Amino acid sequence: MVPGQPHGSHPAILVDLLLGAILLAGAAGGLRIGLDLPAGVLPLAVIAYAVLAVLLWRQRAGHRLTPADRVTLGRATLVMLLIGLLPGAELMAADPAPVFAFALAAALLDGVDGAVARRLHCETQAGARFDMEVDAVLLAVLALWVYALDRAGLWVIMIGLWRYLFVLGGWIQPALARALPASQRRRVICGIQAVGLALCIAPGLPSTVATPMALALLVLVSYSFIIDAAFLWRNPDQGEE
What we know:
This protein has ten helices and no strands. Mean pLDDT is 89; it is low at 1-8. It has helices at residues 10-34, 41-60, 67-85, 89-92, 97-108, 110-120, 125-148, 158-172, 184-200, 207-234.
């Protein structure tokens, strides 16, 4: 685990965040002009990224980003771009190839930051938390895209809401707020959700195929969260095997 750096590392974090902002603004602005998308694309992407940057700055409290964190930040920047493009969903419905490319890249990069962390011995709890939160936002955004492209009904958004409903349940019932130990089941299902939702956005995929796929993903993620909730409810003082 990489030791924390002092507050003097703030400039290093600022460089990472500014680089991400420049790349995002360039991509969002270029796509808006090139595809003749609504004017709200760039401001929405920048606002979403600004929220991410503030939260990340506050979480790190002066600690520099590790190489694995930078990979996660790059993936998060793709997610912010997908958020920014949402106002253009109707115009992009005929050819969602750019959205599909960004979505699939963000989904496939999920395992890269973990591999980098292990390879370079820079695993941190903060990095794992950052990765988890990016995963949650990615699923919510991809679910919104599946709905916006008319590949599935409004119910598909539940895939992205599960994580936040689980957190809300922890506020209401303290037993559900306990930390769950690492679970291979949870990791695999999360990866399947991201890649599966990205595939639901694939150009030319008919809703007759995308809808059953999305429904299967919803059943799978619901199963995972229900298993975790049931375990915490019945065994509030024990860890998962």
